[in-house]
What does this fold into?
Amino acid sequence: MATHDYSELIRGELLRDVEEIVVAAHRTLYRTEGRRWSKPAAYHWLRYEDPDPVARLADGVRRLRKRGARFDAGAVDKACAEASKRGFLN
It folds into this structure.
């Protein structure tokens, strides 16, 4: 993944779509737990200063799943299909 150009990620808004899936799961998890949620809290652990934002998203997904977060399966399938089409997934 690190070999891909970042501009390729944002073309077609793939990164934004995947971010929204992860942020929505984070929001739902926090609300289910009765915790106060904010968008900055969701983005804090994505750490976009890292040169591989997709790896940060994958890490965020793993961490949220461990805490019991659920993801929109249809949205995930759509994003995975787009990522595969662009060569981000094998």
Q: What stands out?
A: Residues 28 and 69 are 7 Å apart (CA to CA).
